[in-house]
Task: structure prediction
Amino acid sequence: MIKIEAIVREEKLEDVKSALNAIEVNGITVFQVMGCGTQKGYTEVVRGTTVDVSLLPKVKFEIVVSSEEWEQKVIKTIQEAAFTGKIGDGKIFSYDLRSAMRIRTCETGYDALN
Ligand SMILES: Nc1ncnc2c1ncn2[C@@H]1O[C@H](COP(=O)(O)OP(=O)(O)OP(=O)(O)O)[C@@H](O)[C@H]1O
Ligand SMILES: [Mg+2]
Result:
């Protein structure tokens, strides 16, 4: 099992969601997050406390898939749906996942996903 995390522009939420629905991904989790990339940000001291004023709102998707074939398919789908070509389009990460369980049935591993 492989977990894919993608951080994309807020305004790409619907595009990415419908692109993933179109390839029939079984489940997604979406988060509202704050982040910065290579352009970094800067910090400011406000009332004696250093605060980050450069974190921008982004949307994070988490998707767990059962094979490398699906991993590549999901990554390509997100890349195409989230692309504008301007800085700040986001990033896609993936990594091996140890376990999964469907709570209702106690199925584990691949069975929990499909
Ligand atoms: N190395 C990283 N680790 C964790 N999150 C990251 C990393 N790089 C980017 N992100 C997340 O992705 C979001 C978008 O990053 P961004 O697209 O600006 O990356 P970038 O490397 O600066 O690319 P670009 O030059 O296209 O802007 C960030 O706000 C942050 O949430
Ligand atoms: Mg950037």
